[in-house]
């Protein structure tokens, strides 16, 4: 497996355990996370605590949305990993997401330094993330 894919897996493992020491081994202290659009999650998150807070909110939303994920494409280079997925939710309130989404991960000196979400339908994503919270 690719070293950067290993870092992503270690990130999610450490995040799930709330293991801050292990998180600091794979992400930079000044990590920068970007979520597009005009909704409650939009904007730049800088630093470990802001990124963790973002993932907590995202996890809560997606965890309560009966989410189905189909992995479409995985691209890997020396400094980047791009993961593209088809995301479909089935919420009982009919506030749903049905689109392709990608995360572009950036690495430097053995750590994740940036993540950026890219969406295929920003208007739908804005509606979903504004109202699904």
Structure report:
This protein has helices at about 5-15, 20-25, 50-65, 120-130; strands at about 25-35, 45, 70-75, 80-90, 100-110, 110-120. It has about 130 residues and is an alpha+beta fold. It has a single domain (about 5-130), classed as Roll (Nuclear Transport Factor 2, Chain: A). Strands 2-1-6-5-4-3 form a six-stranded mixed sheet. The longest helix is centred in the middle third of the chain and has 16 residues, at about 50-65. It starts with a helix and ends with a helix.
Total of domains:
1
What fold name stands as the CATH topology? Nuclear Transport Factor 2, Chain: A
CATH architecture: Roll
Written as H for each helix and E for each strand, in order along the chain, the element string is HHEEHEEEEH
Relative strand content: 35-45%
The counted number of beta strands is 6
- Major sheet summary line: 6 strands, mixed
Low-confidence spans? none
What is the C-alpha radius of gyration, as a whole number of Å? 15 Å
How is the topology of this model organized?
Blueprint: H1 3-17, H2 20-26, E1 27-35, E2 43-46, H3 48-63, E3 68-76, E4 80-88, E5 98-108, E6 111-119, H4 122-131
Parallel strand pairs: 1-6
Antiparallel strand pairs: 1-2, 3-4, 4-5, 5-6
Helix pairs in contact: 1-2
InterPro entries: NTF2-like_dom_sf, SnoaL-like
Organism: Anaerocolumna chitinilytica
Domain SnoaL-like: 9-114
